Amino acid sequence: MDALKEKFFEKSSALRTEMRAIAKEQGDTVVDQVKLGQILGGARGVKMMIWETSALDPIKGIRFRGYSIPELREKLPKVPGGKEPLPEALFWLMLVGEIPTVEQTNWLSKEWMSRMAIPEHTFQVIDALPISTHPMVQFSIAITSLESTSHFSRRYAEGMNKKDYWDPTYEDAMNLVARLPRIAAYIYRRVFHDGKHIAPDPSLDWSGNFAHMLGINDSADFKSLMRLYLTIHADHEGGNASAHTAHLVGSTLSSVYLSYAGAMNSLSGPLHGLANQEVIKWVFKMTDSLGTTTPTKEQIATYVQKTLDEGKVIPGYGHAVLREPDPRFTAQRVFAQEYIKGSDIIETIWKTFDVVPDILKGLGKVKNPWPNVDAHSGAILVHYGMKEFPFYTVLFGVSRALGVLAAACWSRALGMPLERPKSVTSDWVKETAKKAAS
Ligand code: NMX
Ligand code: MLT
Questions:
Q1: Which of 18, 236, 328, 377 could be a cystine partner for 232, CB 3.0 to 4.6 Å?
Q2: Which of 193, 167, 224 is closest to 1 using CA atoms?
Q3: Residue from 316, 318, 284 nearest 303 by CA
């Protein structure tokens, strides 16, 4: 058994025993009340699952095992001479709750490199799709096609003991994370570069190799961006739509291939991960319609108002939980300030940030007028030469696997049951409201 797996087994076995005892002895403890508004309002704030890898505070934003993004940037191992954290190290941290050493991080880079092989049928499945198929659809289908390689599904069919579920889940999770950059790069090169694929470079780390296989920019800075990008998008506690989808699908004992494909279908919605493509689409439309790549704040404000008057949302702004600017937006802004000078599109993003919050506040109904992660990411990609915005959500999807699949290992190790909340009818709602009013 490898050292990471052994550590995970040790920690998760101990927690499983503790959680079982709590469920038995304190299972009837009341921790919350659910209001009608929450039933009608997308279950905001309803506590309903265990998610070990990260926790979201509405004001401070995401904490990965207690660490903020600036702390990750400071404390996680990096490539020699590099400034950005290695996502491998974040996966280790999320899985076992400890910051790995440089040696442990390097081991994980190599381990994923050794698990990267993709079955031929997955490439054939991708190639069978019309080239116009959205990259997220190709990504989701490719992930589903990997199910045939699932250790969990094979061992379940052979009659595995429940206590062992965590073991093949760990193997599947490690294999899937290892394979995602190659699949994503394959889709990118297929759709946008005439199918001219680039072979992996085994000397590189997970993100560096991904940047290399995308083949748009060979600079050290683009590799650094990928390391930061794949770190900051990695997890956002368990209630966000894609993580929750993975958790729900996985709770039926589907393998992580099926549950993560489900997560990617969820991430493909414009209110969730697809917002990163929508932001750049919106910015390009604005600059096209104004006939300038350097719009003034006044011009941006007028365009924002036009978008709202057309009954549309401003992509990249607002959040279901956050109530302050997203620290992932800030991290990207800091990166751009450090690495990039004189980019019209990045300046436009920053000017947009100066005008949108006040306009949204003026509507009187938007709970969070501040930018989220998606408001910034596309502009930096455009700067480095990746202008094909339909691909952006795939990058988000590669990163999100780190948190969601580490969490899937925990769900199996803790023996989390089938998820099955209660629904009510509108008659029940009306009846309850009537009783409350009388
Ligand atoms: N532009 C215009 N209106 C907005 C925006 C926005 N950016 N954000 C919220 N509203 C509206 C929202 O549509 C709702 O209107 P109505 O009552 O007419 O239906 C009202 O404000 C109240 O919504 P909230 O309670 O503030 O937000 P909610 O929690 O329901 O939704 C989002 C959160 C993220 C779905 C919402 O803010 C939004 O649509 N944002 C734009 C899309 C986006 O950037 N999504 C990415 C989120 C991050 N991610 O990667 O997943
Ligand atoms: C995310 O990163 O998943 C999004 O910010 C959405 C969320 O947390 O609800």
A1: 328
A2: 167
A3: 284
319 part of the active site: yes
Measured between alpha carbons, how far is 162 from 415 in angstroms, rounded to an integer?
Answer: 8
Which residues pair with residue 62 across a beta bridge?
A: 56
How far apart are the C-alpha atoms of 221 and 103, rounded to whole Å? 23
| High-pLDDT (> 70) share of the chain, % | 100
Does residue 320's CB lie within 6 angstroms of at least one atom of ligand 2? yes
- Mean pLDDT over 153-166 rounds to 98
- Alpha helices (H) in 372-425, listed in sequence order: 374-383, 392-413
Catalytic residue among 236, 244, 272, 383: 272
Instruction: Give the model confidence (pLDDT) of 379-418 as tens digits.
Output: 999 999 999 999 999 999 999 999 999 999 999 999 999 9
Q: Is 285 in the pocket of ligand 1 (CB under 6 A)?
A: no
- Which one of the listed residues 151, 326, 374, 376 is annotated catalytic? 374
Measured distance CA(74)–CA(94) in Å, rounded: 16
Whether 244 is catalytic is no
Query: How far is it, in rounded angstroms, from Cα 200 to Cα 220?
Result: 16
Q: Is the CB of 416 under 6 A from ligand 2?
A: no
Rounded distance between C-alpha atoms, residue 282 and residue 239, angstroms: 27
Which atom of ligand 2 lies closest to the CA of 233?
2
Residue 365: what pLDDT? 98
Name the token pair of 200. 């992996």
- Number of residues assigned to the chain: 438
The answer to whether residue 354 is catalytic is no
89 within 8 A of 100, measured Cβ to Cβ: yes
pTM, rounded to two decimals: 0.97
Rounded distance between C-alpha atoms, residue 212 and residue 199, angstroms: 9
Is any ligand 1 atom within 6 A of the Cβ of residue 369? Answer: no
